[in-house]
Every structure is written in C-alpha cells, then in structure tokens.
Amino acid sequence: MASATDETKPTPTVAKGLEGIVAAATNIAEVDGEKGKLTLRGYDISELSGNIQFEEVCYLLWNGKLPNQSEFDDLKAEMQSARELPAPVMDAIKAFAPYADGMHVLRMGASLLSIGDPDVDSLDIAGSRRRAARLQAQIPAIVAHTYRVKQGLPIAKPLPEQGLAAGFLQMLEGETPSEARVAGLNAYLVAVAEHGLNASTFTGRVVTSTDSDMVSALTAAIGALKGPKHGGVPGPVLKMLQTIGTPDKADAFIRTEITEGRRIMGFGHRVYKVRDPRAELLSDAADALATNANDQNVSNLLTLTKAVEGTTVKVLAELKPGRDLYANVELYAALILHAVGVPSELFTPIFAIGRTSGWTAHMIDQLEDQRLIRPASVYIGARDLKFVPMSDR
Predict the structure, then answer these.
(1) Range of the domain at 258
(2) 43 and 123 co-located in one domain
(3) Do 266 and 203 form a contact (C-beta atoms < 8 A)?
C-alpha cells in the first residue's frame, strides 16, 4: 500500500521532447525564433553571408573569434593535410559503399577516424580543437569517396591548394569546379554550420559529457541526424519542386496539399515563428549562383522556388488563418545543392559536412564546463507485482 506521503506527492511535469528546457549555457550561437535571427559568436548570420569562407566560420566556432590571415592559413593547411583518409577507413568504404546508403557509410566511416589519431582521447581544449579540424577535413572525404565507389568510379583527390568546398566538389566529380559553384556550396556550408542545441548537437554534448572521445560523440551526432525528423528534408523538397514544375502550377498544388492535410516540404520550424534567416542567406546565394554561372536552369528553379514560397504563405493565410508557416532552410537548401550539382541522395551527408563544425564546437564547449548530463524520468508503470514461475504463466 502506498504511504500517505506517496499519495500526496505531486507528479513531476514531463517536458516531452525537452521542449522549453534550458540544458546548457553557451556563447556559440543564439537562435531567436520570434525575431528570426541566428547569431554565431556574436555575428548575425547576415553579416557573414557572402563575405566569409567556411573555414573562417569553423575557426570562429572553435575559437570564439574570426581568424587573422596567419591563423586562417594555418587552419587551412592543417585541414588540407588531413584530407587523406587512413587506410582502414578507405578499406571500409570500398567494402560497404556498394551495399549501403551514404549516411550508413558516413556513420561507420566516422567511427573509424580515431585510428592513428594522436589526439583521439584528448580532453584538453587545444587537442580537441586540433581533432575538430581534422574531423572537419575528413568527413567531406568520406562522403565524396563513398559516392564515387558506389558509382563504380575511381577515387578522386582534391588539388593541394583547394579549400574545403572546392576540394569536396573535386573529390566528388573528379574535375575542377567553377568558382560560382564553389561559392554556392560555401554559402550552404556557412548557413548550416551551427544552429544551437538541436537533437544531433545535444546528442554530441551528452556523449562528450561522459568524457568519451570526440569521434564517438561525432558518430552519435551523425546517427541522430540520420533520423528523418531532423535531417533528410532537402531531398523531398526537390521532389516537390520537380513535381510542381512551373510557377503557374504552384497554386493548385499547394491548395491540394493543404486541403488534403499533407505537409508542404520546406516550411515550418520547431523554433522559428517567422522566416528562417538561413533561407534568406541561401536565397541570396542562389541569386548570385544563377547570375555568375549564367545557368538558365538554375534561374528557372529559383523562380519556381520563390513562387512556391509566396504561394504557400498566401494560401495558408487564406485556408488556415492563424496557422503561420514560413520557409525554412531546407526550401532553399534543396535549390542551391541541386544547382551546385550535388546528387539528392547526398543532401543529408552534405548537411553533416557543414554541421560538423558546430557539433565539434559544442563538444569543446561541453569540455570547458564539464558535467555529466543525466536528466531524470518519471516512472508511470505498474508496481508491487508478484513473480509467477514460467510454468504457471
């Protein structure tokens, strides 16, 4: 029988999905969902868009400040020297890539990156920053090599002088990419580099809080990203755009989807109550890509994407008053990745390339104020059951 104390004890409130729970204090990023602002180390994302190399953002996230020329050159050199994967990782890619999708191979390949690394078990900040730089260089190589092996193509190496975005496209395609396409991919990587305490980032911090190594935490974060509720949306967005085809068909398509209760891909966000600021960044980058590449197909897709965005907001206001949904990062991510020439099956792995910078920054942040993350749960099951032998069940 429950005691009087048990009967009167209030049941704790469960925050499903940890919604509204503040689990960390950080100076890495601020996500303001009401105002639609994203700040990285004090810089509004709009300040960085179009003006910064992805490696500069990596340095900013890991060190808390933008690099000077010498620091930038040192980081690029360190990352360029780390792009060649350890032989066991390459062997695993060649063995498994033909039989598994990109995220499976990325998760497996990432887990092997501790092989031969001098800082693999380092928990000091300097060693963790070195480890983060090497991981940031190696993840793109895993993604590109996996794709080429799966396609039956030989491994392609980056040119020594290429940065991360150009080097990735070189490894992916085996030929030197145009400056316009490199700029487009760079803009995408900057846009997705960091976004607060989302599911995969929190997963990485939880693993780090156990004093486990950065490779283990990164592998866990990739596993969280693989879930379709967190990653994997740009592919369906592209399919939606291709289904609509032309701007004049957007209204009928959107009305049908909303009337029949289906989700409009690329709209709505758990945090943002207004337009996702990263959508603005990528929309501008797509404008620049269409102009600089002089590509009519990119221009047509951009026109269609903008028509779908405007039509969706208008039709929602008409059919579902009060249900405000605005473009999120995935709407324009699908456009820019497709325009850059990235196959749709690589959309989520490429997101992981960009987000590795933010994941590892949070792992370093966790180490700087280390405490084991161990939330509580509320038991709601049966009590006082009596054991029954198997013969009597």
Answers:
(1) 234-338
(2) yes
(3) no
